[in-house]
Amino acid sequence: MLGLVMGPMIRRSTRRMNEARVEAMLGSYAQDAVSLFPGNHSWGGEYRGRDKIEGFLRRCVAAGLQFEIEDVVVSGLPWNARVCIRLTNKAVGPDGSVVYSNRALIYARTSWGKIKFQETYEDTQRVVALDEYEASRALSLNAQSNSVEAQDA
């Protein structure tokens, strides 16, 4: 029964996140929430509190990540629920090509509709490849900027 309420809420927050409206997703987290993203890459770590989680969500938007929910499973009572979300995510480059795609499973514990704890599982090698793409893009943009400055001098 709880899934009938939480499933649509999660899908709506995800749609808004895809529209760069971070506040909708951020509102799903308790003030003292903890979000874990395992892996040896720049995205990996423990994000404690809504401020840190907001930074992570804004980075997702800045990277152009788009999320598609495949399934939501909810168990428990409103004050102590567990949620599993299966999703895909991707980022598209300036030329329209897919530069990153991955599958993820999110496990969360919630209380009264607010996420208290979340852990995200993805193929971390693909996340490392996203790091490498972002680094090469930053170098390319920096080189273009330096070239324009040199021409102006």
Could you walk me through the main structural features you see in this protein, from its secondary elements to its overall organization?
The chain has about 150 residues and is of the alpha+beta class. Helix content is about 40%, strand content about 40%. The protein has 4 helices and 6 strands. A 6-stranded mixed sheet has the order 2-1-6-5-4-3. Strand 5 and strand 6 form a beta hairpin. The mean pLDDT is about 90.
Q: Which percent band covers the strand fraction?
A: 35-45%
State the distance separating the first and last CA atoms: 67 Å
Total beta strand runs: 6
Overall pLDDT = 90
Largest sheet, if any?
Answer: 6 strands, mixed
Order of strands in the sheet with the most strands? 2-1-6-5-4-3
What structural category characterises the helix and strand content?
alpha+beta
Q: What ranges have pLDDT less than 50 throughout 5 or more consecutive residues? A: none
How are helices and strands ordered from N to C? HHEEHEEEEH
Helix content: 40-55%
Count of alpha/pi helices: 4
**So what's the overall shape?**
globular
- Rg to the nearest angstrom? 18 Å
Q: How is the topology of this model organized?
A:
Blueprint: H1 2-18, H2 22-26, E1 29-37, E2 45-48, H3 50-62, E3 66-77, E4 80-92, E5 98-111, E6 114-122, H4 124-152
Parallel strand pairs: 1-6
Antiparallel strand pairs: 1-2, 3-4, 4-5, 5-6
